[in-house]
Automatic annotation (TrEMBL):
This is TetR/AcrR family transcriptional regulator. Residues 15-75 form the HTH tetR-type domain. Pfam families: TetR_C_6, TetR_N. Residues 38-57 bind DNA. PROSITE patterns: HTH_TETR_2. PANTHER family: HTH-TYPE TRANSCRIPTIONAL REGULATOR BETI, HTH-TYPE TRANSCRIPTIONAL REGULATOR RUTR.
Amino acid sequence: MTTQRKPRGPYRKGIQRREQILDAALEVFSRHGDRGSSLQEIADRVGLSLPGLLHYFGSREELLLAVIERRDVLDTESRTVKEEAEVRSPGEAVVRTVRHNMEQPGLVKLFVALSAAATEPAHHAHGFFTDRYRDLVLTIRKGLESGQENGEIRADANAEHMARLLLAISDGLQIQWLMDPSVDMAAIVETFNLLCQAAPDRESEPGR
């Protein structure tokens, strides 16, 4: 059996430095978003010059994408086993994610701006968002199909269509919420989830 060696020397220090920069960038962008944040502020937080920062991230755009990727990883890691077990449907999982995002308006601004720009095939983040949506649609579709099989999700609607609608609603609401923070994104997504539920079997209702 072979054991995996931990990175040592300059390579390991480079990884640690990159992690420090990402942590600082995540905090800065979570408060200010893309346009309200500067690379210099991030560099100052980790004791680097601006050229030193760009040694680890070749451009501002590369750092922005790394921050979004980091956010997704941290969101996944933050869920406890108990929380994962309590989630009964993909729609409920999306609601929890939306609630969490409402606590990080700067990162929501960053996500909206970057995902819109990434619709251009030549954009550096195009591949990331293409893969992200493909994987999310697949995961949610499978969860909905499972719900259709056990009678919890309506069977008269296409599972992939419902999956794409769920993502379109959750992501589209972010723009409305940034314009008007009184918009309760989580509650609206819950409304869509109710529409996806199977109608109760009247023959099995009490008294029938």
